[in-house]
Amino acid sequence: MNAALLVAPDFLLIALGVLLARRFAYGAPFWEGVERLVYFVLFPALLFRSLATAPLAIGDAGALALTALGYTGGAMVLSALARPLFALPRETFAACFQCGFRFNTYLVLAVASSLGGAKAVALASLVVGIMVPVVNVAAVAVLARGHAARIALEVARNPLVLATLAGIVWNALALPMPRVPARMLELAGNGALPLGLLAVGAALRFERGALPLPALAWFHAVKLVAAPAIALALAHAMALTTVETQVALAHASVPTATSAYILAARMNGRGAPVALIVSTGTLLAAFTMPIWIAWAAPATGATAASGNGPEAHAGQSARVNTDSRLLGSPRPRPPVDDRPASTGHAARRACRPAPGYCR
After folding, report:
1. CB of 59 within 8 A of CB of 353?
2. What are phi and psi of 25, to 5 degrees?
3. Could you state, in order of their start, the residue ranges of all structural domains in the chain?
4. Can you list the alpha helix ranges (DSSP code H) found in the chain?
5. In degrees rounded to 5, what are phi and psi of residue 332?
6. In this predicted model, what pLDDT tens digit does every residue of 272-286 receive, in sequence order?
7. Using CA atoms, how far apart are residues 306 and 173, in angstroms rounded to an integer?
8. Segment 217-268, tens digit of pLDDT
C-alpha cells in the first residue's frame, strides 16, 4: 500500500481533533480529561497487552533497540547545537532541546499497526518502552538543571514506563493471559490510539514569534530529516528486517509529542516556543513521514527482510545469538519444516522466529 495512504488516517484524526477543539464547545477541561484518560489508563493497557502477548521473543529485538538508541542519541547531539548556533537564551534552549528527539507515542503505535499488525505493534511498543525513560531523563535533566531526585521521580512514576516493564516481565515469564482480563485490555487498547490522536490535534497551538525562524527550522530538520536518516543508515548497517526498519523509521520520523509543551510549561515556563515546534512539526510530518516509510523496504531488501531464503535464516541465527546477550535469551522455537534436522537448510530454518507523557 502507498505509504501516504498508510499514515493518512492517523493525520486525518489529528486534523479532526483540531476541528473539534476549535469549532465545537467542548472546552479545555474536556480535552484535558481525554488526555489524562489516554495517558494513565488506555495507553498503558495497550502497551502492556502488546508486550505481554507479543508473538516474538523480546530478545529478538536487540538490534532494533540499539538502532533506536543510536538515532535518538544522534538527534540529541544535533539538538544541543541549537544553542551555540542561534544564541538561544538558556531557558528557551532548555525548553526546546527535547523537541529534536521526543516522539509522539500515539502516532508511532498507530502507524505501526497499519504497517505490520500485531508484530509491528509489539516491536513499536518495545521501542517506546525503552526510549521513554531515555528521552525523559535527557529532557528533564536539561530543564531541571541536574536535580537528580526530580529526574528519577519523573521517570519512576511514568505510567508508560511501568506498563512496559510489566509487559516485558510477563512475556519473559511466559505467563498465560486469562480471557477476561485479555479482553478488557484489548477493549481499552483499542480506544487509546483514536482518542490519543484526537487529543494531539486538540492540543496544537500556533504562536508566531515564539522562536526565531532559523532555530525553528533547525529543530524540524533534526526531528523530521536527520533522525530518520540516521535511523535508515543504522537499519541498513544492523541488517534489520523490513518490519523492524519500518518501525524504526516510523518512530524516528514522527513529530514531537505534545507533552513536551506540558513539561516545558511546568518546569521553566517557556511553553510557547515548544508549542510552535510541536504544532508546525506535526503539519510537516504529514508530508515527511510517508517518504521515510516508503524507503523502509529498499533499505533491507524484501527477501532477507521478510525472513525468506537461506541468507535470511543465517542472518536471523546470528542476530539471535547477538541479541540474546543484549536483552536476554529468546524462547526456543520449533523447526518450521519436517526435513531431517541434519541438513544445513533445516538447521538454519530452525532459527527462524515465529511470525506472527512522554509519548
Report:
1. no
2. -85, 60
3. 3-349
4. 3-23, 28-37, 43-52, 62-80, 82-86, 90-96, 105-144, 148-156, 159-172, 179-203, 213-221, 227-237, 242-253, 259-267, 271-294, 296-300, 302-306, 310-327, 344-349
5. -65, 145
6. 899 899 989 999 999
7. 28
8. 999 999 999 999 999 999 999 999 989 999 999 999 999 988 788 778 777 6
Q: Which grid coordinates belong to 67?
A: 538502532
C-alpha cell of residue 324: 540474546
Q: Which amino acid is residue 335, in one-letter code?
A: P
C-alpha distances in Å from residue 108, one per residue of 127, 207, 224, 255: 10, 26, 14, 9
Q: What is the rounded end-to-end Cα distance, in angstroms, of the chain?
A: 27
Please give the Cα distance from 95 to 122 (Å, whole number).
31
CATH numeric code, 3-349: 1.20.1530
**Residue 146 banded pLDDT, cuts 50, 70, 90:** low
3-state SS class at 357: coil
